[in-house]
Amino acid sequence: MANLIETLGTPLLLFVSTFGIVFGLGLQQLNVSGGHRIAAALTSFMIGALNLVLFKLIPQPTSGLELVGYLVGGPVGIVAAMVVHPMLEARLKRQGSGPSPASASAGRRRIAPGE
Known about the structure:
Blueprint: H1 2-33, H2 37-57, H3 64-94, H4 101-105
């Protein structure tokens, strides 16, 4: 068991940090698009912290398993952000923390798909 943890340690950390960075970037983009300034700013802390983890891990020689952990974290992270964001947004609106639809869209032009 200890050998398994030792083997998966760095690849798992690479997966978690890449997942978290891309998840944070996805949430941040959705927050910016939705006009949620505070939430967009707060995600920067998560992105920065996980970038530090990634920068500490990557300079060393990487194995195939570590590369897999790094590469798989991104796609899983962005899909997770796309799933989680609407739930977070709905929860914040129920709590009265979200901007009103009029203020959220003030001064922004809707971009049609493919534009």
